[in-house]
Design goal:
The protein has two domains: 1-114, Rossmann fold (3-Layer(aba) Sandwich), CATH 3.40.50.170; 121-213, Rossmann fold (3-Layer(aba) Sandwich), CATH 3.40.50.170. 37% of the residues lie in helices and 24% in strands. The protein has helices at 2-8, 27-37, 56-63, 78-92, 108-113, 134-141, 176-199, and strands spanning 16-22, 43-50, 68-70, 96-99, 118-122, 145-152, 162-169, 203-206, 209-212. Helix 2 crosses helix 7. The protein is globular.
Length: 213
């Protein structure tokens, strides 16, 4: 607890503060780290939190010298896990929470506690192909274009207001793996761009729509 508070009270406290939740390899996390190190983002990742002890995102956080926390979900009562996560993030009280490959559904209490402060990156052109296996869903539907979306998180699954989207053409010989690899770089680009817009206060919500100023 003291370690977290000391990070918050550091000389960088005026920067846009971010908590990243991640369950996997951490490529989106790395894109944020790179954008901060390159000076594109005036943000500070206060902590990386993962629900999986073998998540490569934790290794990336450690390598970058970031504070990281493992709050395991496996084998734990769901309510207990969710309460521990909520308490941890409430202590930090970041400007933004980024779901970067976080494979858990956040409960309503968590979302309500950080209303319009949580964003997610999803590998489809929402509102099409919500939920798991979005790329496979798109291929099965025979679409000619696929994409990715950064959106605010609400109580639905991939239903929050859209901030940014990017498009990728589906080639005749594409499969889920090839499309996923090509789409990944676009995910990184629009995620970082969305964070930049938010830290510069350039995203305005009007009902379910966002205006970029």
């Amino acid at each position: 607890m003291k370690g977290i508070l000391s990070l918050i009270n550091s000389s960088d406290k005026k920067k846009f503060s971010i908590v990243v939740l991640a369950s996997g390899r951490g490529s989106n996390l790395q894109a944020i780290i790179d954008a901060i190190q390159e000076g594109y983002l005036n943000s500070q990742i206060i902590q990386v939190i993962s629900n999986k002890k073998d998540a490569l995102a934790l290794e990336k956080a450690k390598k970058a010298g970031l504070s990281f926390q493992l709050i395991e979900s496996k084998g734990k009562n769901r309510d207990l896990y969710q309460q521990q996560l909520l308490e941890q993030v409430k202590v930090i009280n970041p400007d933004l929470i980024v779901l970067a490959g976080y494979m858990r559904i956040l409960p309503k209490e968590f979302i309500d506690s950080f209303d319009r402060k949580i964003i997610n990156i999803h590998p489809s052109l929402l509102p099409s192909f919500k939920g798991l296996h979005a790329i496979e869903q798109a291929l099965d539907a025979g679409v000619k274009f696929i994409g990715c979306t950064v959106h605010f998180v609400d109580s639905g699954i991939d239903t929050g207001p859209i901030i940014l989207q990017a498009v990728e053409e589906v080639l005749a010989n594409d499969d889920a793996d090839s499309l996923s690899q090509r789409l990944l770089s676009k995910e990184h680009q629009i995620l970082v761009k969305a964070i930049k817009l938010l830290e510069d206060n350039k995203v305005v919500l009007q009902g379910r729509k966002t205006l970029l100023r």
